């Protein structure tokens, strides 16, 4: 049975978010990524596998090493999905701010 990974479950994990932040600035090998964490390398490899399955990262073989790259198109899809919710909350906070200004006087 082939289970499809959910991108939002993938980014819910703080280690995976940290990996995305690292790779966002520059492409990195698995070893270079793992050196930034106090967990076992197989644990980081599992996180990388999940991020790759969700297409948040792409991988490229370079000799014996695997280089991981951020997939900006997939990140854009996530941002586009979240944007209406961000706007809704901004509108609500602006309304609350307007109401609260009346009580400051």
Strand tally is 3
- Strand-residue proportion: 5-15%
Helix count from the secondary structure assignment:
5
Q: Helix- and strand-based class?
A: alpha+beta
Helix content: 55-70%
* Strand order within the widest beta sheet: 1-3-2
Largest beta-sheet details:
3 strands, antiparallel
3D shape: elongated
Q: Note the gap between the termini.
A: 63 Å
Element-by-element helix/strand order: HHEHHEEH
Overall mean pLDDT stands at 91
Note poorly predicted spans. none
* Rg (CA only): 19 Å
Question: Would you write up a description of this structure?
Answer:
By secondary structure, the protein is α+β, with helices and mostly antiparallel strands. Helices cover 66% and strands 13% of the residues. It has five helices and three strands; from the N terminus they run ααβααββα. The chain has helices spanning 7-12, 14-25, 30-34, 41-53, 72-104; strands at residues 28-29, 57-62, 65-70. A hairpin with a 2-residue loop joins β2 (57-62) and β3. α2 crosses α4 (41-53). The longest helix is centred in the C-terminal third of the chain and has 33 residues, at 72-104. The chain is elongated. The N and C termini lie far apart (63 Å). The mean pLDDT is 91.
């Amino acid at each position: 049975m082939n289970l499809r990974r959910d991108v939002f479950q993938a980014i819910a994990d703080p280690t995976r978010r940290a990996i995305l932040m690292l790779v966002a600035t520059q492409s990195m090998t698995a070893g270079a990524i793992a050196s930034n964490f106090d967990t076992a390398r197989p644990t980081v490899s599992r996180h990388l596998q999940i991020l790759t399955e969700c297409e948040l990262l792409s991988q490229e073989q370079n000799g014996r090493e695997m280089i991981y790259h951020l997939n900006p198109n997939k990140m854009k899809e996530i941002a586009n999905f979240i944007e209406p919710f961000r706007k809704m909350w901004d509108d609500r906070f602006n309304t609350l701010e307007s109401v609260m200004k009346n009580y400051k006087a």
